[in-house]
Amino acid sequence: MTQTPIRFSFLPRRIVSCWYPASRKHFSSTPSTLRAVLQESRNKKSVMATLNTKAGQAVDRAVLDSMLRRRLFYTPSFEIYGGVSGLYDYGPPGCAVLNNIVETWRKHFVLEEDMLEVDCTMLTPEEVLKTSGHVEKFADWMCKDPKTGEIFRADHLVEEMLEARLKGDMEARGQKIEVDTEKEAKKKKKAKSEAIKLDDAVVKDYEEVLAQIDNFDGPQLEQIIAKYDIRNPVTGGNVLPPVSFNLMFQTSIGPSSNMPGYLRPETAQGQFLNFQKLLEFNQQAMPFASASIGKSFRNEISPRAGLLRVREFLMAEIEHFVDPEGGKKHARFDEVKDIELILLNRDVQLSGSTKTETMTVGKAVEIGLVDNETLGYFLARIQLFLLKIGVDSTKVRFRQHMANEMAHYACDCWDAELLTSYGWIECVGCADRSAYDLNVHKNKTGAPLVVRETRAEPLKVEEWQIDLDKKKFGPRFKKDGKTVEAAIDALSQDLREKLALDLEKSGKVEVDVAGVASGKVELEKDIITIEKRTRVENVREYTPNVIEPSFGIGRILYSLMEHVYWYREGDEARGLLSFPPVIAPTKVLLVPLSSNPAFRPLVQQLTTKLRRLGISSRVDDSSASIGKRYARNDELGTPFGVTVDFQSVKDSTITLRDRDSTKQVRASEDEILQALKSLVEGEETWEDVRKRLPEFTGQEVD
Amino acid sequence: MTQTPIRFSFLPRRIVSCWYPASRKHFSSTPSTLRAVLQESRNKKSVMATLNTKAGQAVDRAVLDSMLRRRLFYTPSFEIYGGVSGLYDYGPPGCAVLNNIVETWRKHFVLEEDMLEVDCTMLTPEEVLKTSGHVEKFADWMCKDPKTGEIFRADHLVEEMLEARLKGDMEARGQKIEVDTEKEAKKKKKAKSEAIKLDDAVVKDYEEVLAQIDNFDGPQLEQIIAKYDIRNPVTGGNVLPPVSFNLMFQTSIGPSSNMPGYLRPETAQGQFLNFQKLLEFNQQAMPFASASIGKSFRNEISPRAGLLRVREFLMAEIEHFVDPEGGKKHARFDEVKDIELILLNRDVQLSGSTKTETMTVGKAVEIGLVDNETLGYFLARIQLFLLKIGVDSTKVRFRQHMANEMAHYACDCWDAELLTSYGWIECVGCADRSAYDLNVHKNKTGAPLVVRETRAEPLKVEEWQIDLDKKKFGPRFKKDGKTVEAAIDALSQDLREKLALDLEKSGKVEVDVAGVASGKVELEKDIITIEKRTRVENVREYTPNVIEPSFGIGRILYSLMEHVYWYREGDEARGLLSFPPVIAPTKVLLVPLSSNPAFRPLVQQLTTKLRRLGISSRVDDSSASIGKRYARNDELGTPFGVTVDFQSVKDSTITLRDRDSTKQVRASEDEILQALKSLVEGEETWEDVRKRLPEFTGQEVD
Helix, strand, coil % (nearest 5) of chain A? Predict the structure, then answer.
């Protein structure tokens, strides 16, 4: 079984025709990375146990998930109609965090770097996606159980069955492992593991298949299914051979059915198609970047893993267009060159390890590990962005694609991966895609998706030029004239040189012209001249290369929520989400001590003043205790709380509480508002504020 | 031909089954409004001529449009593939304006009023849209030319042909009118008008048909097409009878084809489906509003009119849930009650006039013209929003829906219409939709989309209650028991009262029970008791009503661009877009006098400082003259310009230019930056700044 080179990606991707499908990994796994982790986990500890909160507590995904749903960060779409797998709605706090991430992204990338943001349609005619390769290649393999009608993603099915058998084997060997009972397995529609010992050779076989699971094509999966007797895990029935299933949602544009279309699988195509106009808008100046934020779609066969594998998702993509000549330098590279990244390079992965090394981006480019400055610049900027929104710096790494993961045209590609309870998740891709995308659309449509620039020094090209005596040529070839001329035009410089010698020697040349006469045409020197001459080029024309940082915003949001989640020691039931203020759904909770009407004017006034400062706030004047009200908002990630009590009514002092430390200070309304402004704008930290304002220790009671 | 009551709307709409389709007007026209305007225009002057810029110049739509495309505010999608009608991309300035409008909307509505913003999926399973009525009713009538395969929207076809004939008639009567030549008509694929005089009676007939064009259903359109011999305007061929065409884009969710779905035609459904969770999130407090910003889709048969009729568009919708009892008061109504609105009420429209009256919203609610405070509150808030983003206050009106336009369940509905070169365009709808939407989903799914509140005073209900002696009842009716019991439970209070009398009189009663015995069942007083008793209700359960302000952001953007467009007298070729700073794509243009490197450090420093102030800027250091560079940015709507010249290098003073007046002031860098901040944040006007800083009159040269 040969390993087919594929292009991996968590996000819908462009594919090139000579490569096997747009198959994706389940998450960021690669044979040598996640597999290695799984292997480890199978033998030693679970991946989940390795994911700790910043307070060092193990993340219990079920507890976190239940909190996120209860507080309406997200919810299954159409739940009252039974729901649709892979579709989720964001409720108020989730939607606010999403908006804040997008706004931060826009400031960090679009505004900071003068990118040209565009908003292109999601509806896309088929022809465009044929050119990009998606119609042919953006597919997964699926198997149908002919009896039950159930459909499985073929690689998932193989994986599930073999993993269940390996589990059973470990159990039989007396290793402690969590095993689904038959009843539980049926409920989850998953394969039950039975404690059956396998031959060592079989275990090895299975592990080898699992290690390569993402690399198999349909016929290979079919063989594996037959060889290892893979069946419907619940009923035990046989499944049909895998068939290819295109992952784009198809529809029809307009009233007649003659314009098939799809929902875009990525936002990139619209940017490529508009390249020429964007270049003109940019007054022909290179390099420049376009950017786009919007929904994309992929019709997953059987989505699992919650917010990480969904059918409709928000992306933010940058296409940075750069001259392929001159080493793809970046004018602002110096600003980031000292930033350290945790890198997992391809050679390490090839050796079967997942050992990372920490290196400045300057060094990584210098030693050629990262292909060029522009790519390196974006890796650093991606990391800065992730840290800005609150990602845990110890849970980010950049993994380089291995040669067999990349499309043949790509120079280099790195994924920013975030560590979650699902393992390392690919959240941002950053690829140097060379001139591929612009070229395919240019070739298909003839649109000049190129840059033309006046050369500082005119270029002189020595070349063999051919002249034809049209007066004699025309009558001689009549209707074949154009075909013959085209064949001559297409002659390479080498051939021309050879023909020039022939012509000088024998006074005639023979040229291959398919479809004319015997396929060869003879030309005498009275009709053809071949001479070496100098051509002067004043204009240089080139197709820019594109560096593409591509962000899965929903995945980033989910991973971020795992990173900022923790709970106070001894109080596991009360979770906290320590979003940084810029990302938190609401910045300030206003808490009147009780529902006493005496507090109302002050609360109202604070609301108005905060709004004027551009700080979002919410009032919780419910009858719950102050402690409970704070705890409720800790779950929502509200970083600050302001309490209005009887003292406030007397002297206009209010208290300010920090979510993470639960420490409070007390000062005048103006001082607190000023502190809030600088906290929210990131000019001061809580520590700064705590030091300069008097501590307060009353109030917070459960 | 009877007039079928329809529900009008520019936006995809929910429809109720007993009303004829989701037919929409072509724009905001109604028989008595736009028709009246068209009528006028046919006789006197063109609508376009009536649209003036704020400088009093006639808007030439072709000139404006060409500027908007040239400056990449928008561009046809997939143009290098030939384009797809009804799909447009927004380029950098259009995208920035769109983002700014959305951001302003979010602040004005969501943050200001603590609305619960949600982000729901566009993919929607068929079942949901069956319940909402869209699957059955969201359709237009289309006609096919069997020879050419062309498809026409039936009402558009009739309209076009009759208007062409009326034009021809006017021409024949010697009235000057712009007439398409045959060649032009073919190019536009439009009916050519020939100068043929019509009988007066025929003219009257045609005008009557045109006045009602939006009200005809398929069979009626078929009659009209036959009666007036309507044909393919280009080939003259006959068309087939109209058939209904659903305007939703259909797709299939998941790998098997058993889950048909659609792209949502509006964002509202997701909000309704999540009502229960949102209410819980809001700690059961009423009233509250949800909001959603996102793309919706409608598969137009033959989109025309550029950005005003597109297949994919951005909407912002609010669903304000309110208790139907208590007159739908609004707590903040007092804040807006003195705001004056220009109202076009339904009675005026019924009388065939388009005469508006100006009235405070307080008065409009008081006299019952606007149904309730909550609706009135939103009308005022909608106007405040439109003015904030730069809409011309003289080109806004609120048009009340006539009875035949509204769904039967709606209490009242007003559209905010903006005057454009296409006539009055419906840009925001604001309807009181009663409890319709929550009820249909509740009835379909059984989900409790209701509010339950503890009554302050328990409600005592006097009612006739029926008791059955189960011991006798069961054996008597056996398998029919449940049917009989259900029939008894369903008896109305009136019937119960009558039966109680019967029972007292004759000792037995007769109850109708369909499907049991002879359809009647006799019950004696040993088996049934009917008594008047008092029931105490501690909890009140009700389905909230919903007030729905629904914004077509793309339409607002286009109308706004027409409103802020003008040109300097004598310089028609140079347009300006006078966006208010909050909406302008870029706030400040930085213009070094020349490409002299001496200016670079200062420009760089200004860029950094502006970014830190949160003010977006762009540098134009091209070799064009300062005047030309400013003019280029006037077209983009950049409100302010800063020039760096040799004086600046010497003394750090810079100049600040106002786009609209072209006046300049000169002051120190700090003073100018401070002025910019207060201008952009709306704290000062240009007049304020001009008064307090020294004028500057040099530089601006062409």
Answer: 40, 25, 35
